[in-house]
Amino acid sequence: MSESDDAPPVVIVGSGAVGLFLGVLLARVGVRALVLEAGGRTLGGFANTTFECVGRRHQGIQISRSRSLGGTTNLWGGQLVELMPADLQRREWPCGEAWPIRYEELASHFRETYQALGVPDDIIEDPAVWEWLGTPRPQLGQGLEVFLTRWMRMPNLAVLFSREIETDSNLLVATDATVCGFTFDGDRIAAVEVCDGQGRRVRVRGQRFVLAAGTVENVRLLLHGATVADCPWRHNRMVGRRFQDHLGGRIADIKPHAMRDFSRAFATLVVKGDKLQPKIRTTNDFVGQPGNLNIQAMLAFESSISENLVFLKQFVKAALYGRRVGSLKALLKNSIACSRYLLPLMWNYAVQHRLLIPGSAKISLHVQSETVPLDESRITIDTTCRDVYGLPKVILDWRVGQIELPQIKQFAERVAVALAPIADVVIVPELAAGRTEFLDGLYETGHQAGGCVMGESPETGVVDRDLRVFGTRNLYVLGASVFRSSGNANTTFSAMALAMRLKRHLVGI
Ligand SMILES: Cc1cc2nc3c(=O)[nH]c(=O)nc-3n(C[C@H](O)[C@H](O)[C@H](O)COP(=O)(O)OP(=O)(O)OC[C@H]3O[C@@H](n4cnc5c(N)ncnc54)[C@H](O)[C@@H]3O)c2cc1C
Description:
This protein is α/β, with parallel strands linked by helices. It has helices at 17-28, 60-63, 103-107, 110-116, 126-133, 157-160, 162-167, 215-225, 259-266, 284-288, 306-320, 328-339, 342-352, 404-419, 429-432, 436-441, 492-507, and strands at 2-3, 10-13, 33-36, 51-53, 79-80, 144-151, 171-174, 178-185, 188-195, 201-205, 208-211, 247-256, 269-271, 274-282, 295-302, 362-369, 378-386, 392-397, 423-427, 443-444, 475-477.
């Protein structure tokens, strides 16, 4: 094994949503960052021999992770959603201690995070957007509210930051560089061991190390590290515990009384070229009451031209980013199919600032529910089974608790009452009857979290309020894997806000 001799101030493991983002943020303030990425520049995944599910089915461990430059931002939608204040407070669950940071400490980085991702200032606050549209924000009652999510124009971070990756001398990104071990020096990490596809190994030294390899891989690396006698976190029983994902699936069908009114409240908005999506969620006050879960729902619109519109959107995107586009014949066929909607489409887009919901559209409501973070919902490793890099197989035992089904049922019932003035809501019969088969049929949403949770002490967490692994002086974990709970929000935006906060900690401002 050879050794690199130039120790960068910060070594980041993983070039995904949070790792690459942190690298870019550090480089922008003149701090040299080395990002080590296991995958290459083309889309790759994790071999299915490297993990096994023994608990609740979890397909996301295979299909919702990308092992490539840019990580899972090669797959994601780039929808930005904030955690809510109640998410970080004490919850009435066993082990429901508050996060060690206050909501304000996280939220104070939201604006800067939006800006770094290219979201214009004037669409960051919901009230400003509704005011600009000249439409009052829809009022729901029942402990529910309408809120807006923002979609990045360019969700793939490897593309968004390509210029900085290529030209910024403070940002060095190495691909085909799988981190597969640590060298300890007391309570410090002296180096990480890196292996390439040819089996060549090198030790990379650094002053500070940040694990940003995604929820599952962060845990794999920490548990693998803990098999060595001098590992500082060897006795931390929290590593791998409280694995979470959101539960997703259809909970109701919706028939608006008048499509025009419904559309004004719930059609996707296009504000100065940026896409915002109205959704329904539980209010912060409701979430703060004992035993309540934080739940959101989105409306899905399916019409005879849905597929044609998806084709046209992908065609335009591919053409814009220089990728292979579909055939001209297919373009013509899909354009003809949409032609009778062309004028209403354009009218809605240019005048109403909304995407068209055709009158014939089938509308359904899809839930995204928080799950209780359980100690027994956990990731462990099987050291008898190793991959080509010597990393042990991951065993995922995802568990979901007892309150999710009644809470989702109650949520659907409250939405039905809240929407009654503008629509009929027909709850899926299995849910209305509260059958466990309904819960079994829900899928995970690609929002893997937990396993390295933030805590006040090594008894309750893996990392401290600064995201530093307990027992170490220079190893940090970044990503949704540090979330103590995951609220209803798609996890990545708040994880990126934590990257913003970690940047400040690392550069000492
Ligand atoms: C289809 C889909 C849609 C989604 N949409 C949204 C959305 O709209 N909004 C949202 O908030 N979230 C969304 N998500 C979830 C989001 O993509 C992930 O939560 C997010 O990418 C996680 O960021 P991360 O940086 O922690 O991990 P990743 O983005 O997965 O990056 C981790 C990187 O680390 C690398 N790596 C792993 N192990 C090692 C190692 N040993 N050495 C070196 N490198 C390593 C990986 O190759 C990878 O590149 C979606 C997910 C999917 C699958």
